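User: Predict the structure for this protein chain, please.
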Amino acid sequence: MTGFERFEVLTALFPFVDVPVRKPRPVLVMSTGAFNTLHGHVIVAMITTGAESQWPSDSVILDLAAAGLKHRSVIRWKVFTLPISAIGRRIGTLAHGDRLAFEAACRTTLSGGAG
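Assistant: Here is the predicted structure, written as structure tokens:
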């Protein structure tokens, strides 16, 4: 399946640099469906519980049910381009309010703001 769209929450074999094991983790699609199909890759951001650390730019997901998540989670600015083959399945999508909050965080982060 290559029809992934922006704001969908997927599972993916997330690359960890500090451990050799890869296991499915939730990720947020940042790229458009057209980009994903054209390139055979998806630009994603890590979704984590943030239990071990907290980043100033973390964006909290408030509607966990819509995102298909069970535990308090944040979107973290660990951004990767993953091949479609590393994608597992769709588990949810960001709710409207969470989309707006993440888009605001993107503008702040990418424009050199404090985030």
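The mean pLDDT is 89.
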